[in-house]
Each structure stands twice: as C-alpha cells, then as structure tokens.
Amino acid sequence: MIDILPSILSADFAHLADEIRTVEEAGATMLHVDVMDGHFVPNITIGPPVIECIRKATSLPLDVHLMITEPERYLRSFIDAGADSISVQVESTVHLDRAIQYIKNEDRNAGVVLNPATPLTMVEEVLENVDHVLIMSVNPGFGGQKFIEYSLDKIARLKEMIEEAELDCRIEVDGGIDSGNLREVLEAGAEMIVVGSHIFHAEDPAEALRELFRIARQFEGESSVGSTARFES
Question: Quick check: is 3 catalytic?
C-alpha cells in the first residue's frame, strides 16, 4: 500500500491542530515530522516538546526524520515524545548500526536517510535491519524545493537492491513531489511519499491530498492488473 505522508514542516504552526485535522479527514495515514538542528542542516525546526504536543493532537503514526548531528544522543527523547518511526541520516553519525538497533529495541520503526549526493553503498550493510530507506530528492533543510531528477534512478536502483536481497524494506521519498511528478516517483519504486508545500500551501489542502491519493490508488490498481497478467502468462 502506498502511503502519502503530509509533512508538517509546511503547515501553519499557529493552527497546527487544525491543519492536522484537515489532512486526517482527507485520508492521511501517517504524518511526517522534520527535526532540524541548525548544524547538520541550515535551519532549525522543532524538538521533542512539540512532537509531544502533536502526539496529543492526533492518533496517526508520527514518522520523525532527524536531520541533526549525533542523533543517537537524542533518540530516547524522541521516543518518549511519541515518535512511532525514527529515521536518521547516514551522514550524521559514525554509529549508524547502534542507532538503528536502539530504535528497533524500543519497538519503533527504524529508517535511514540518504542525501541526494550520498551513494546507496552507504546503506548496504544495514539494509536488512531497517524498515525503510528515505531518499532525499532535495537537499535537506528547507521546504518548497524543486525535485532533483536523478533521484528517480537512485530510487529504482534501491528497489532492485531490496528485491534482489528479498528484504521487507520500504522506500520513502521526500522533496519536491506533487501531483505532476508523483506517478514517476511511484513507477521508480517508492511506497512512502512525503509531501509538504503541495498540500499545506494549496488553496484546498484536503483536496490536494485527496488528488495525490487518487493518483496513488490508480497506480496501485494498474500495477495489480499488470502483476496478474504477468502471472497468468
């Protein structure tokens, strides 16, 4: 199943509970939360106290992306705040396996994140231990950036790696995705799609999200038919 994850980085924080309620009612199955420290990326966003407040405002799973230096120092705080899934940047820690194991031992989903210029080889050794790999299709730090086209090839190559190893690992993609390029991203192999500006900056955020779901469900239907046809042949 394809998940569309509204990224609250692009939401109106003065009315955050209302913004969350809007995407919930439009069918969101998960929320994406970007944590930035002003050091690993050139921006500062939110920390555990805000995530704790978000946790009280919704029952949706919270997919927390840590764009911070030495994330292993803060995992406990984000778990206690209510994160259901935590993703760490491979470039941000020299103890990637330790961080992954800590998250998994706390019964949370663990993910690893690759910046646009970071090669897939950086996750080969841990791929069998994570629940998902997040491919950044923009340079992290700010919302509203343009999708980097070579990300499509990277997604496709990651999909091949996962299928060849027969792993239960999903592909998440974040950055510059909208109704115009969503299908390309899905065709490349993505299953978890993070979308911020296209939803929350739209005139009708609920309809923007529903349109993305329509594209995703149509793609799933066509893929299912194609798989059946190949099996029958």
Answer: no
